[in-house]
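Blinded run. Sample ID left blank on purpose so nobody reads anything into the name before looking at the predicted structure. Input follows.
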Amino acid sequence: MRRKSGDLTGREKRFCEIYALGGDAPAAALAAGYDTPGKAGVSLLSRDDINAEVSRLYEKRLRNARQKAYAGYEKIAYGSVNDAVRLLFEGDAFGADGNEYDLFNVAEIKRPKEGALEIKFFDRLKALEKLEQYGRDDENSSSDFYRALVNGIGNLKNEEGGDAQ
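Blinded prediction complete.
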């Protein structure tokens, strides 16, 4: 009896998850528990339901990465530098309490031979530019979708003999 499309076994889902992360079919099949990973990887990737699940997982991963990048740029652009300044003044007292500091905005820390502490921060203006760019990309993607939708409807009307607008 053949399964319905979209009803993947646990092992097939595991294969899809691992393949979406690394793109190595034999390694994904081996990690998912297949006995002949090379053959199983090729066989699984020839199925439409497997490819659909891999695509879904890959797109989800890209969306998550994009959201994390956006959050990181926001933290650089708007985040506090208070802990870095505290570190600058405390100097050697930093020691064991280092985990208490939020140094996300710090790109580099140096202690030259003279003994002073140098702290270099990430560029807030570049982070703001990236945030603005993300906003433009989101606007363009939605308008691209809208244009494609309108063009598709126009094409359907042309095929049916109606007037396209």
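Unblinding after everyone has recorded impressions. Residues 8-77 form a domain with the Arc Repressor Mutant, subunit A fold (CATH 1.10.10).
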